[in-house]
Batch of 3 targets.
Target 1
Amino acid sequence: MFEYHGWVAIAETPGAESDDASLKRTVERVGRRMSDLGDYGLLDLRWLNGSPFLHFAGLLNHRGRWGDEILDLFEHTGRLAPGSYGLLYLRDHTDPFQGNEFRVCRMAKGQVTEHDDPFLSPAVPTVEDALD
């Protein structure tokens, strides 16, 4: 199984200044990229209190193309809007080295880095019981 949960607060710059027209165009570009993906799981882009947010979550049988596309969408959003920040939690049960671990992709100032998860890992026994 491939599990993912994430969100991004989309921002043009990390500073307080913002060009509303430019931000709107950037959000439209993110929306077009989302529409290229098709429809699976939770994939949501909306404005909340005047700020754009991207949310996504899903559980696939295996990572495959869709899993790669989700990670690419996360990274692509950071490249388009370098003030963006957010988190993407991933767990690939089939990964022989990290199948029992969640990985966290952190976006800060549009840059994505990958980190160990200190909260839900190891999945067994933290969130799941071992198989008998």
Target 2
Amino acid sequence: MTARQNFDKALNELENEILRMGSMVERAIYDAVESLAKQDVDLAQRVINGDRDINYLETEIEDRLVTLIATQQPIARDLRRIITGIKIITNLERMGDHAVDIARVTKRIAGQPLIKPLVDIPRMAKISQQMVKEGLDAYVRSDVDKAKYMCSLDDEVDHLYSQVFRELLTYMMEDPKTIAQATSLLFVARFLERIADYATNIGEAVIYLVTGERFDLNL
């Protein structure tokens, strides 16, 4: 096997690991919001415990990508592939941290009747998960159009965040007893809004990978 074939094989294996990490993060987001909706403390704890695996995988992938730079001295597009991989796992790790933050809210308000049925927060989570999935698909396919479309979904998440903010603020103004829980739910909405921003960063990284140009789509 030639040096070029060895490099491509190693990078393809790492890209598969990045996809595996993405799947773990998608699941963590889903489980965190599910734990909140159902007030399932055990599920919330599993999300918290599972973050160790996400962090470990990020470190392992990053170490291997850096080793490729050191040993193969890639140039041009090959180097962009590696840099893009590092950017993606960094953003995935941050999303995983926010899934943990949501799970911790579940534990904090466990046993309290929810002040309102959760509607927009699960919607935000669903769109955020879709963004992660589509962003990684765009990465694998080097698909700029898909990356741009995925980034456009961030506007929907921002709109829902504003809606949740206004609604919960109204609850707090009308009944001070709701302030503690409403504040916790506002944090959840904010965490999901940030997850969508990190997904947008992945889209930007994919565009950089394909075109070599840098775009700021978090506007």
Target 3
Amino acid sequence: MSLTYDLDKLDMAVNHILDHTKSKTLLFYGEMGAGKTTLIRAFVAALGAEEAASSPTFSLVNEYLTPKGPIYHFDFYRINSETEALDMGIEDYLDSPAWKLIEWPQKIEGLLDENVQKVEISVKSEELRLLTLC
């Protein structure tokens, strides 16, 4: 299921994900600069978080509080092995009923179960992106 969206209309992409996902564990794939964090920022805001989302590149995980519970945002770009994710307690997060938004999930694929939603973002132009739910 795909959608082309303009970066100034991120709400379309967020609604597409919310309408079609079967999991609260979203795996965001896309090249550097494709807009993964930008889309996650809009997603977190749409779910009612009080603070704006930012990239957890160095902390590995950010937690955002919403009226319906926490959202966990992971960025595994800088890890070198699944052991690093295990050391930070990824299994406890993955077992949580909260939303889990994961950038660079290919770094921890061996730790993920089948109950996930892959979100692929491709750059079509400077302002257009193609979002594909797999």
